[in-house]
Amino acid sequence: MASEELDRNFSELHVTRDSDCNGKSKILENQAVDGDVQITCFTEDLHDVTLHFQIIKLAKQIFVWIGCNTAKFGHLYAAAITRPNDQAAVTPILGGTSDNTGSGIARRLVLKTGLNIIVACNIPKDSPMLEATAERKLAEKLRSLGYIRPKPGGMSTLD
């Protein structure tokens, strides 16, 4: 990518506020650079924890980063649909041998979206309620962005 093209792409970034989160979230969105990439960042302030999210949507893949109180990268997981029975396969790429926080999120997201999913997550492993809350907030955002495919009966697979 040429330097001029990169400068042009960065100039297309817009900072807005997400009205769905009552002013608690900040969004940085790039609405389709080259028609195939969309970047969404937002923050959710919970009682004593701040969750940071970044979603990068590519043509056939979604990269998700979930940070808890810090910008630490965390463990990295890849998930994809397997053939012929449409089950999700998840593998750790970085870390994740004893701490599988994030692998469940990756598994469920691949089933909900039908796309390959990469999840980086630094939620503490002894916080299942925090992990569930982070996944719920992430799923709400993915639904609002239109990334979650609807169920054949009209309901999304989040229900």
Descriptive notes:
This protein has 159 residues and is of the alpha+beta class. It is built from 3 helices and 8 strands. The chain has an 8-stranded mixed β-sheet with strand order 1-2-3-4-5-8-6-7, sandwiched between helices. The longest helix is centred in the C-terminal third of the chain and has 18 residues, at 128-145. The model is unreliable at 13-33 (pLDDT under 50). It comes from Musa troglodytarum (fe'i banana). One of its GO terms (biological process) is proteasome assembly.
Brief digest:
The chain is α+β, with helices and mostly antiparallel strands and 159 residues long. The chain has three helices and eight strands; from the N terminus they run αβββββββαβα.
> What is the alpha-carbon Rg in Å?
16 Å
Please identify the structural class as seen in this structure: alpha+beta
Task: Give average pLDDT, whole number.
Answer: 77
Spatial sequence of strands, sheet with the most strands: 1-2-3-4-5-8-6-7
**What is the number of helical segments per DSSP (H or I, 4+ residues)?**
3
Q: Sketch the major β-sheet.
A: 8 strands, mixed
**Envelope shape:** globular
State the total count of DSSP E strands: 8
Low-confidence stretches: 13-33
Question: What sequence of helices (H) and strands (E) makes up the elements?
Answer: HEEEEEEEHEH
Strand content: 35-45%
Roughly what percent helix? 10-25%
Distance between the termini: 41 Å
Protein name: Proteasome assembly chaperone 4
